[in-house]
Fold each of these.
Amino acid sequence: MMQADVTILGGGLVGSILAVGLAYRGLKIVVLDHNPPLDFKDSGDGRTTAVSYGSQQIFHKLGLWDGIACHAQPICEIRVFEEGSAWTVDYDHKDIGPHPMGYILENRVMRHHLQQALKHPQITWLTPSSALNCQRLFDKAVITTTTGEVIESKLIVGAEGRHSPVRLQSGIGVHQWDYPQTALVAHIYHQEPHHNTAWEIFMPSGPLAVLPMLTCPQTQQHRSGLVWAKSRDYDWHHPTNQDLEKEFLSYFPFYGSISLCSERWTYPLSALKVDSFVAHRLALVGDAAHVVHPIAGQGVNLGWRDADVLTTLLGDAFDVGLDIGTLSVLKSYHQKQKLDHCGVLWMTDGINRLFRSPYRSTYFLRNAGFAVVNHLPPLKRWLMRKAMGI
Ligand SMILES: Cc1cc2nc3c(=O)[nH]c(=O)nc-3n(C[C@H](O)[C@H](O)[C@H](O)COP(=O)(O)OP(=O)(O)OC[C@H]3O[C@@H](n4cnc5c(N)ncnc54)[C@H](O)[C@@H]3O)c2cc1C
């Protein structure tokens, strides 16, 4: 029998940040993940993540930033335009302050560093292992694992991603929908430097993001990551590299010649919202609680804010001896994060729908939107602060 304060199911990008935060507050944590630890070079997840300035501050607070800073590509400018329209919006970090708006990091690099951080003395990391049976009783939660351990704790946190088994078992209501889009993730080499600029290009078939990466350490070539959405039935593995490069250049000629330099990873896109982030002796974080369209690069940033808010709340309750698994403690986490999530969900869903719409009236609406943002600096700065998570 193992005793802990919190058992976290899922040691991904969000679950591990929560574990480290709670361990720093003095809580005893068990983390279960059904996948074995990743090798640093593991390419199973080819995604890059736009880490907002606010999230970078969370990493910094936990002492995790120094280890990954050398892998982080700053984003100083973001340029947005619609294919076929003369309007663009340029967001320049200098309008807000001296800091970059965010950083691009490879997921495999972040996962590797977070896995190292799970070796904290307050954390027991069981992997590969998952929950075979979860009982949420009046005064404790008891988990039996697939590897035979029995763990008693005050609270279970579901951080197993969008298909969270503990959420399904809890009976918490879920609303989810599929977008008629699949995203391609790949990396390109390009002739011209990216000048720390991220691009978002809206096309009728879906958005294309071109995200600056650090120069390739092996070849010293300029490099960017692509997140390119097209209709769900499009087979991203069918076109040759030359065909994809040619199509990309027809939308994005700004970096000179380009070549694909990675595998292709594909992700069907969907959204998910829960009726409640909490139940008796259960809290949900990250994609287990919400999934949003990646159009604005906000999904995991939202999850890290869940982890940050929950860490403060549980840490404070723990310090004064409260039972951290009761609804009276957990309710304010739900109230706070529900608002945050609804804002991001409706913003990303709305932008995606608006830019997919073929109607002329929405074309005028989109151009008007670009013009308003360009001519109202306070609105532009507000949008930038939202994207930066501050
Ligand atoms: C194409 C694309 C691009 C994106 N780009 C961005 C971006 O730029 N910025 C951004 O903020 N967000 C982005 N996102 C969203 C982001 O990737 C997710 O929000 C993030 O991965 C969620 O992290 P998580 O830890 O909640 O879940 P996951 O990353 O899904 O991790 C879940 C963890 O739980 C483990 N697990 C699963 N099931 C079990 C089980 N039964 N028992 C135990 N362990 C289990 C898994 O092994 C994994 O380690 C993007 C998403 C997509 C699809």
Amino acid sequence: MLELQAVHYHPATVPQPVLRQANLKLAVGTPVLVAGRSGSGKTTLLELISGLAEADGGRFLWNNEPVAARQRRWLSGLVFQFPERHFLGLTVGQELRLGQRRLGGEAIDQVLAQVGLTGISLQQAPERLSGGQQRRLALAVQLLRNPRVLLLDEPTAGLDWTVREEVLGLLDQLARERALLVVTHEPELFAGRFSQAWQLVDGGLRPLLPATVLTMAPDGSS
Ligand SMILES: Nc1ncnc2c1ncn2[C@@H]1O[C@H](COP(=O)(O)OP(=O)(O)O)[C@@H](O)[C@H]1O
Ligand SMILES: [Mg+2]
């Protein structure tokens, strides 16, 4: 479990802290949703968790042991908002192998199956994939690193209804084997999929109301 204890973040250039003494627990099997308006600090929260930014106060614990930013970079897989804008590979295969030269075909096949991309051609350009497939590819790239904590920044942003459903359908399964944190400005789309939901307001995390966003049944079928 990854735990944030009183995490504080206040860049000198902004008048108010972006995060004030934020507490959060991310456990395997308990997906967490953090909702918040644009500019409320959602992306910053993910950058702090994944070790891309350094907090000004507070602690991060992994299984009750303090973890520095560098260790959190290994533990976390961050899928950016609009990840398809950051594809670097000329082909799907290259994109999957970025940063991991020694990746067996078996590992790739396994991850592609996990995100529902079994059988896609690795020779094609990522841009040739459909919108939903591109999002799945971005997820696959992170899953290949086998992160213990998966962080998704606005995974439904800019997707039309059917593609959104495709992506949402993956979340339950992804949460089973790792800690999962999704941040979004449209929490209503995630109704029934999360057992814990918070709202980021004035730099603090409060329980998200209405409770309709919370899972009603253990199998998420509510
Ligand atoms: N390193 C930084 N320096 C200055 N301002 C920052 C820094 N990091 C975050 N912020 C500010 O924090 C606020 C929250 O931004 P962000 O995390 O992108 O919000 P969200 O993802 O919820 O839209 C913004 O006003 C942003 O300018
Ligand atoms: Mg953001």
Amino acid sequence: MPEHDPRLLYLTRRDVAAVGGASAGLYVDALRAALVAHAEGATVQPLKPYLRAGKGHIADRIIAMPAHVGEPGVSGLKWIGSKHDNPAAGRERASALIVLNDPETNYPVAILEGGLISAWRTAAVTCLAAEHLARPGFTDVTLIGCGVIGRTQVDALLERFPGIGTVHLHDLRPEAAHELAARLDGRVATRVAAEAEDAVRAGDVVLPCTVTDRPYLEFDWLKPGTLLANVSIMDVHKEVFLRADKVVVDDWEQSNREKKIINQLVLEGSFSREQLHAELGEILAGTRPGRESTGEIILLNPMGMAVEDIACAAEVHARAEAQGVGTWLDLY
Ligand SMILES: NC(=O)c1ccc[n+]([C@@H]2O[C@H](COP(=O)([O-])OP(=O)(O)OC[C@H]3O[C@@H](n4cnc5c(N)ncnc54)[C@H](O)[C@@H]3O)[C@@H](O)[C@H]2O)c1
């Protein structure tokens, strides 16, 4: 019997980008299928544990995100670390590895840099939501928090929705908003707002991408027809959940935990699964309606799912193998 000599493919961020991992198309296609599979109960996704060492900032943590997608499909884990003050030291806030496992043997077959995939899959969720939940023909996008996640959201939306005319930017650090405005120069009109309220009032699609743990975004700031994609989860006052025409999540179980706003509302008895309009995958599968009138205010609460990371990483891995990209590593 030949000696078993397992190997795995290591993909750096540059490798991931080289096979299409730095634009929206790969992610939107992979996620459409994965989110429908998730809604149909055809994925396996244990609740993600948060490792918090000490009593730090809300964004100081490492999260383990395992999932299985497809049949026979692929299994894997995203292991994503975060420190809120990394950007002040010139580092990205989040850093991540994704490990993919062959479901036949459960051996690891690939290790991928996960920060790029994580940012783009998060942006692709917003793109899919915008297809179904934004007002058709929307022109104004508002971004609160101009870090890596926010920038990628804007890049992805501009790629998928060429009708966007103006991007309104706000950041607690005005220089971050001005830097992004300069980066977007020539692609779209930009406006830097001194106050979050001013930016939010202008948006058809509103994207909080901050690291706040204190809600500031009020329902009365939202104009009729707004899609509010609550990417950073803690920005939106409770009343927005209670007054929005539709509340959509990626996964109810993941949203209703860890004292996040939905969980707080459920514990207080003012929100429940019955009041939820849908999980996003149900809307993509066509079993629940998306936007039904131009005036609806719709709140998407995307906690972020391992299923998304693993489905996207599997597509990146398949392309890299086919194109001979990456570095093979011996396991033994
Ligand atoms: N839902 C998901 O699937 C998902 C996935 C990835 C990241 N995220 C979240 O996205 C958020 C942003 O991540 P990042 O990597 O871009 O972080 P980052 O630290 O690089 O950028 C955050 C930006 O927000 C600004 N900011 C902080 N508080 C603010 C406030 N109250 N008002 C306005 N601006 C504020 C900061 O100055 C900074 O420029 C994080 O909260 C992260 O957890 C969500």
